[in-house]
Amino acid sequence: TADYDPNAKYSKKKQIEYKSLFVDPNEPIRLNKYLANAGICSRREADEYITTGVVTVNGEVAKELGTKVKRSDVVKFHDEIVNIERKTYILLNKPKDCVTTSEDPQARLTVMDLIKDACNERVYPVGRLDRNTTGVLLLTNDGDLASKLTHPQYLKKKIYLVHTDKNVTKHDMEQITSGIQLEDGEIHADEISYIDETKRNQIGIEIHSGKNRIIRRIFESLGYKIIKLDRVFFAGLTKKGLQRGEWRYLTEKEVSFLKMGSFE
To answer: Mind telling me which residue stretches traverse the membrane in this protein (predicted)?
Structure first.
């Protein structure tokens, strides 16, 4: 029917209130972290705003990058009071022809268009998927968690299904696991296998690297063209039960696992 909304079951009314883990209201936190947690910007951007003098704490312009604030302090950004927002975590099964940005100058479909009814909080994607890569994408306003999931020190496991333009040889698969030299250094997959021995152009690959377009670059370096690329697993999250373009809120348990670093 024309008014069928596949995401109706995930309306704002059902939005999950996540428990804040171990938050002491009197514990001072760095101002840049406070602004990031409020969904204003990233920590790096917050530092730039602080140095330009558009952030005040209790009426005083904050110019020191290391400034710490408490939750009881009145923080303003461009004269607007900043409140730490409730945390929101959304899992999207990203479709093709959709860009992983908040806004697109070419007016293409963005991941934000797909989740626009999910929440009032300003969430942003954790990491990126190319326009034509599909699959698991996490969006949140939890700056701490986003940093942890994308920081090179804590690289998280990702599994992709790859469809190539021709059969991939056993020799090339062995090369991918032992290591391939790309322009920005050596890269190797943790595991790689055929999805089906009879269809050797369909490959499952597990990797921890967070480098840009890494899967496409690995296969292109060996002379293959990727026809389809689908991320089926990211840091313990899968798209099970979600059609392309559909989303859901993470469960309390999933959020706890991610925060505690329990997922690989």
So the answer is: none
130 is a catalytic site residue? yes
Q: Please tell me the number of Cα atoms within 13 Å of 71 on its side-chain side.
A: 9
Residues 65, 177 within the same domain: no
Per-residue pLDDT for the chain (264 aa), expressed as one digit of tens each?
A: 444 455 555 454 467 766 655 456 678 889 998 888 777 777 888 899 999 999 999 999 998 888 999 878 899 999 888 877 778 999 999 999 999 987 888 889 999 999 988 888 888 899 889 999 999 999 998 888 888 888 777 778 999 999 999 999 999 999 999 999 999 899 999 999 999 989 999 999 999 888 889 999 999 999 999 999 999 999 999 999 999 999 999 998 999 888 887 666
Structural contact between residues 192 and 149, judged by C-beta atoms closer than 8 angstroms: no
Question: Is 153 in a helix, a strand, or coil?
Answer: helix
Distance between CA atoms of residues 118 and 88, nearest Å: 9
Nearest to 160 by CA among 264, 94, 231: 231
Whole-prediction pTM: 0.74
CATH of the domain at 126: 3.30.70.580
3-state secondary structure 10-52: HCHHHCCCCCCCCCCCCCCEEHHHHHHHCCCCCHHHHHHHHHH
Q: Which domain holds residue 139?
A: 86-153+236-260
Largest CA distance in the chain: 69
